[in-house]
Every structure is written in structure tokens, then in C-alpha cells.
Write a structure and sequence with these properties.
This protein has 294 residues and is an alpha/beta fold. It contains 9 helices and 14 strands. A 5-stranded parallel beta sheet has the order 3-8-7-4-6. Strands 10-14-13-11-12 form a 5-stranded parallel beta sheet. A two-stranded antiparallel sheet has the order 1-2. Helix 3 crosses helix 8 (249-259) and helix 7 packs across helix 8. The radius of gyration is 18 Å and the shape is globular.
Length: 294
């Protein structure tokens, strides 16, 4: 069950998976836990929204025993990581990142997959927060506050493997959408991770995640998102999402949830797994109707 899209917030917590900088600023100090899910060069940014805690997708919140990056940790490991961040089952959580809406969507989807619905993404992330004139403070090295009581309760079907995606590619009721850039999908641009084949899963459709956003990294309104998804998925309501390493696939999941889709799944291994040398099929070239670069 994906969090409802009825309204921006309620007294009990997020009623849809997106919140603006203004509504968030009005709720600071009211029991909202902020998690900074920035990755790569933005990980450990010099400033944070006051009180934010590091949801480290490049660290303990990925399974480093996996051969591919950014895969989900186990239930016990996830529970421990969230407790170490001081998160309780009764908390309201807002996740953001320093790029806009990028890796924060991954944190949101992970929490949903672990049975936690009281979570929303900050629309436009840290840049939108700063542009609106809200305060920031220096980022500490780590969170050192009291532990939480969070308990993961995994939901089946929100995070899926290559076998489930293979079945979806053959299912006329399902659409597999690829969040990478159009040139990576077509196989005309090299993959940033060494050793991967270029191209895409035969039968998948290109939908670069930037198509779901306006300038400034904010998400498009629901009616525009629905139009974008209808253009690539047609009447199919079962949507599967892939990308390079399972991060921007979650931006598509966020956009689809905002657009009203309910039957959603993210391929955890994404192209970092499918693109490895193997007997999994790979196609090249643009797909009919595929979206180009933003």
C-alpha cells in the first residue's frame, strides 16, 4: 500500500509523499524528524536543515555485501540503522537531499518498503529550502542523540529482483520504466560504472527522471505527472521502475504515487545488476515513444 495522495499533511503526519519548504518550516520543532539522504559529492554537505540526521545511502543504509550498489539492507540492519538515527515508529519523518529530489526519493521508498508510511519527501530538497530563505546550520559528522524504537515491517513487492522484472517485461498489464538518460537507455553513452553493457531491457520504456520535475528540482503537479506516465505506460497500471543503481528509479515511484498509481515496484539491482555480463538480454537504440533528455 503506497501512502495516500489526498493532501499535503495532517495532524498525524504526511498524507501524501511530498511536502513543500513552507509547510515543513511551519512544522519544525513539532516532532518532525528530518533525514538527509544526499549521496555522492553531496553526501556530508557543509550545511543542513536544522536538526537533520544523515540517512547514509552510501554507508550503512545500503547492503555492502551485495555485488551492486545501493541495494536494500536486511530487515535487522535497517531497523538498527533507523534506531541509531533516533527514529521511533510514531515519528513523522521528512527526507531530503542536497540535489533537489534525487536520492531522497530512495530513502522514502525504502521506508515505505519497510512498512513505515509517516514519511514524505521535501519538494526541491535543500536548494528549495535555502531559496525560500529558511535557516540552515553547519552539518555535524554524525548523529549522536538518543536511540529510537523503530521496527521494520517489510512489505512484499515494493522492492523486487531481476526475476520479477523479467516476468513484468512479459506481462501486457505491466510497464517497466527506465529512469536513466535516453542516451544511456539507447546504449549510445557509456555507463558510469565499469564493466556494464550498454543499452536497456528489451520491452522497457525510457522515462528519464528529470521529465517529472520542473526547473529547480521540484516535482510536477499531479495532473502533469499523470500525463507523462500515460504517454509511456498507456493504460497499464502496474509499474516497475529501474535506473542505474535503484536510486532515481524511486523518483519515478514518487512521481507515480503522486499521479495516483498504486501498484508500484522498484528493481533494486537495476542496471548495475542487469547490465553485468550475463545471459540477460540487452537491447540498444531508442524505443518508440521514448522520452529524450530533459
Amino acid at each position: 500500500m503506497i501512502p495516500t495522495t489526498r493532501a499535503e499533511t495532517t495532524d498525524d503526519g504526511p498524507a501524501r509523499p511530498l511536502i513543500g519548504a513552507g509547510p515543513l518550516a511551519a512544522r519544525l520543532g513539532e516532532g518532525v524528524v528530518l533525514l538527509d539522504a544526499s549521496v555522492g559529492a553531496h553526501r556530508g554537505a557543509a550545511v543542513r536543515i536544522p536538526g537533520a540526521r544523515p540517512f547514509d545511502l552510501d554507508g550503512e543504509l545500503s547492503d555492502h555485501a551485495s555485488a551492486v550498489p545501493h541495494t536494500m539492507p536486511g530487515t535487522e540492519e535497517f531497523t538498527e540503522a533507523l534506531r541509531a538515527l533516533g527514529v521511533h515508529d510514531t515519528d513523522t519523518v521528512v527526507v531530503y537531499d542536497a540535489q533537489g529530489v534525487y536520492s531522497s526519493a530512495r530513502a522514502w521508498w525504502m521506508l515505505c518498503a519497510m512498512g513505515f508510511d509517516r514519511v514524505a519527501v521535501l519538494d526541491g530538497g535543500l536548494p528549495a529550502w535555502i531559496a525560500a530563505g529558511h535557516p540552515v546550520e553547519p552539518s555535524p559528522a554524525a548523529y549522536d542523540g538518543p536511540r529510537g524504537t523503530f521496527t521494520a515491517r517489510p512489505r512484499r513487492g515494493l522492492i523486487v529482483d531481476a526475476g520479477a522484472v523479467t516476468e513484468a517485461l512479459a506481462d501486457p498489464a505491466a510497464a517497466v520504466l527506465d529512469a536513466r538518460t535516453a542516451d544511456r537507455y539507447a546504449g549510445t553513452a557509456p555507463e558510469p560504472r565499469p564493466g556494464l553493457r550498454g543499452g536497456h531491457m528489451p520491452g522497457s520504456v525510457s522515462l528519464p527522471f528529470g521529465r517529472l520535475q520542473r526547473d529547480g528540482g521540484v516535482m510536477r503537479p499531479a495532473h502533469e505527472l499523470r500525463t507523462v506516465f500515460k504517454a509511456v505506460a498507456g493504460r497499464r497500471e502496474q509499474l516497475y521502475f529501474s535506473c542505474g543503481s535503484g536510486v532515481t528509479a524511486c523518483v519515478l515511484a514518487l512521481g507515480a504515487a503522486l499521479a495516483g498509481y498504486r501498484d508500484l515496484a522498484v528493481y533494486d539491482g537495476s542496471w548495475s545488476e542487469w547490465g553485468l555480463p550475463s545471459d540477460r538480454p540487452v537491447a540498444t537504440g531508442e524505443a518508440p515513444g521514448a522520452f529524450g533528455p530533459r
